[in-house]
Design goal:
The structure is a homodimer. By secondary structure, chain A is of the alpha+beta class. Chain A has 2 domains: 137 residues, 60s Ribosomal Protein L30, Chain: A (2-Layer Sandwich); 156 residues, PurM-like C-terminal domain (Phosphoribosyl-aminoimidazole Synthetase, Chain A, domain 2, Alpha-Beta Complex). Chain A is 34% helix and 26% strand. Chain A has 11 helices and 12 strands. In chain A, the strands form 2 sheets. The first copy, chain A, has a 6-stranded mixed β-sheet with strand order 1-2-3-6-4-5. In chain A, strands 8-10-7-11-9-12 form a 6-stranded mixed β-sheet, sandwiched between helices. In chain A, strand 2 and strand 3 form a beta hairpin. Chain A is globular and about 55 Å long.
Chain lengths: 316, 316
């Protein structure tokens, strides 16, 4: 059993569908109808050493990442982040490590105007759990479930960089790929703009095909046609790993923390100009179809079966 | 360096004192002035196996406890809990354990009308991190900092039961003491009533003297006189451990999850009638003084130096 089945089976409770829970478990974040006029958004992500990062990587990159993955969920809801809580479990006291960790965390928090409002530290195996709360205009909530047949499929930024950095020694020391792995930039500003334009959105943490699969399923078992040659790759990934492997990692690698969203044709020009204003590359990589699952068209011969992304598997 | 110093040094940032953060890091929870008319309260606590619970204890008691310790913080802020997020890190998939864990969690959630709105599960060493959000009338926020010289000091319920259960084999199998350790009851209903009456409040997690010390410090270095014979003990604790040890554990043991609060004389009668209405024992154990730290008066001869409660210590 994997984490998705586990959550479905044990943690989806009907009694949590209270009238004021507008979006509960199962999307990138929860939307709570508590504030008149505004909705609160709450997200949570835990990072475990050896699973989501290596203790050996720079501590500031771990602090950055712990907040970034949550802000990425906030962005995928179209919300404005406001506050965070941080739970830090550490095996040993190491002041230098902790200061660097905090530096990475707060630097990113400051960029996005996020206040750390609570949390705790405990002794134990290195793990970090962060909760972030934000607000969103009820009319601008981005969900996974709004995709429509005929929508264009977009992604912000290039994909597969983090997975490439993890794939071999040479790629791991490439500056652009290492940056993608260690310091992913959550697309918060973009998420806030998309509320008016996009039909659906998700952040890419498990891999493009896996995450797009969540959107297709949530939107009523729609399909998607992805044009292989439109999937944006890192130059370094292509040159170090060859095109086919770079594409495979962009489709199935995970840890991109870019936004994938769908929007009607008429929004295309405005989306490109938003990207230009925010200094973000935006790519249209295909279309939503009525059915048929997710197809990658025009890929190179011998493209490996793309796994359905990263899942935590337990021994059973 | 212990966790309090660590938090002070690294995680208290001036930039987090935003205008809409009414109470930030340093109290039992954060109070955010986001909602017109209501304030949001957010709390977070992490439990690590072997530190905060034993993997061998019933899984439902671990689920109960993970939520209870957070609800206790919510209660200490005078708030009404609304939502929770849960991060669960588990080494192995064990469906039976997980179901029992969830049972304990949701049973308590239902009692208090709390919706689980998000979270994640990851593979790794057993640890649980929970964030709870609630709401409070801005005029009814309970802080640590409001104690006044002359206030009476109250506690809800009896103290030292959990610590007694951990202290010896015989006590660990006593039903009342085991219940206090495994299934602490957060005093949410009481907290909501106290906003109008109490000057300050804290929940007892680190031990009475340590937690009362936080109140005294936050209220401007006040003092406290505790009457030893008024400190409410568990009968089983006294009979199994003898009076002196039971008192020591009530003063310094921790893990009580009762509320300790201060209120003026005129509130005494109304507090007792609230206790009676809620079916809660309430005890006046002493008074706040102008200075002089925390004194325990009339204790038995040979009362051990009471430690300042439970702190996580790292090797340095």
């Amino acid at each position: 059993m994997d984490e998705f089945e586990l959550i479905d089976q044990i943690f989806h409770r009907r009694e949590d569908q209270k009238s004021w829970v507008s979006v509960g478990v199962g999307d990138d974040g929860a939307v709570l109808d508590v504030t008149p006029g505004k909705q609160s958004v709450v997200v949570m992500d835990t990072l475990v050493s050896g699973v989501h990062f290596l203790h050996a990587q720079p501590a500031d990159s771990i602090g950055h990442r712990a907040l970034a993955v949550n802000l990425s969920d906030i962005a995928a809801m179209g919300a404005t982040p406001r506050w965070a809580t941080l739970s830090l479990t550490i095996p040993d006291f190491d002041g230098e490590w902790l200061r660097a960790f905090a530096e990475g965390f707060f630097k990113l928090a400051q960029i996005h105007g996020v206040a750390l409002v609570g949390g705790d530290t405990t002794a134990g195996p290195l793990a970090i759990s962060v909760t972030v709360g934000g607000e969103v205009d009820p009319a601008a909530v981005l969900r996974r479930s709004g995709a429509k047949s005929g929508d264009r499929i977009f992604v912000s930024g290039r994909l597969g960089g983090a997975a490439a950095a993890l794939s071999c020694e040479e790629a791991s020391t490439d500056r652009a790929l290492q940056q993608a792995l260690w310091y992913p930039e959550p697309r918060v500003d973009l998420g806030m703009e998309l509320g008016r334009l996009a039909h659906s959105a998700i952040d890419l943490s498990d891999g493009l095909l896996a995450d797009l699969g969540h959107v297709l399923k949530a939107s009523g078992d729609l399909g998607a046609d992805i044009e292989a040659d439109q999937v944006p790759l890192f130059d370094a990934s292509v040159s170090l790993l060859e095109y086919r492997r770079a594409l495979e990692l962009a489709l199935g690698g995970g840890d991109d923390y870019e936004l994938c969203f769908t929007a009607p044709d008429k929004a295309h020009q405005e989306l490109l100009s938003i990207g230009s204003r925010l200094g973000l590359e935006m790519f249209c990589i295909g279309r939503i179809t009525r059915e048929g699952g997710c197809c990658v068209r025009g890929g190179p011969p011998g493209l490996a079966d793309i796994t359905s992304g990263y899942r935590h598997l337990w021994r059973k």
